[in-house]
Design goal:
Blueprint (H helix, E strand, L loop, with lengths): L7 E4 L4 H9 L4 E3 L17 H22 L6 E12 L2 E3 L5 H11 L3 E12 L2 E13 L4 H9 L20 E5 L2 H5 L3 H13 L1
Helix pairs in contact: 3-4
């Protein structure tokens, strides 16, 4: 894939982890906040995790594109939207809202296998391409002390499922099947596939 043949990339996300991954992969990009257009991240009744992240990735990409349109810049950019959620026993886990919420999530994940779904959506004009990365994460059994100590570090609070694979949370992960970058929030292999679709069209 020759990234130079593609339009400039705009990441419709303020996630520092997504920015870090794009930069590490050698992409030149801008960021824009999708929140200004009011993306509703509330799971809908009966929505599967895959449907949930797909919907939000698409909504964020469209929100980012709308912001560019308002600034007269939309024609020159590929807009990337992404969303990640952790799920176990069909329960969608987003970011914890307080310490008790984080403790509940970590206790639920302790000693079990859970899934991480990350949806991506690339958008340019009326053309749209989407994909979902699914990974399985095997968690160590955690003591109450481990959970409390981890929460006290502050790391869980801006992360789906209340842990970060790229930080202290890595100490809890026995095994990963799938995409490390996907668990972080931006599956780079799947992003490459989407970019290839745009390039080959």
């Amino acid at each position: 894939m020759t990234k130079s043949l593609l339009p400039s990339l705009v990441l419709a996300s303020t996630s520092p982890r997504r920015r870090e991954l794009l930069a590490q992969a050698g992409f030149t990009f801008e960021t824009i906040s999708p929140g200004e257009s009011g993306v509703d991240e509330t799971p809908q009744a009966g929505e599967t995790p895959k449907e949930y992240v797909s919907r939000l990735a698409r909504a964020k990409a469209h929100a980012g594109q709308l912001s560019l349109i308002h600034n007269g810049r939309a024609d020159h950019f590929l807009v990337l939207g992404a969303d990640t959620t952790v799920t176990i026993d069909k329960l969608i886990m987003e970011k914890p809202i307080h310490a008790e919420d984080a403790a509940r999530m970590l206790s639920r994940l302790s000693g079990k296998v859970h899934q991480v779904f990350t949806g991506l959506c690339l958008l340019k004009g009326h053309r749209e391409e989407s994909i979902v990365s699914i990974s399985e994460v095997h968690f160590e059994t955690l003591s109450e002390h481990q959970i409390a100590e981890y929460i006290a570090s502050g790391e869980p609070f801006d992360k789906a499922g209340a842990y970060g694979i790229q930080g202290r949370g890595a100490l809890f992960i026995k095994h990963l099947e799938g995409s490390y970058s996907g668990v972080m929030g931006l599956p780079l292999y799947e992003l490459g596939l989407l970019l290839q679709r745009f390039e080959s069209a």
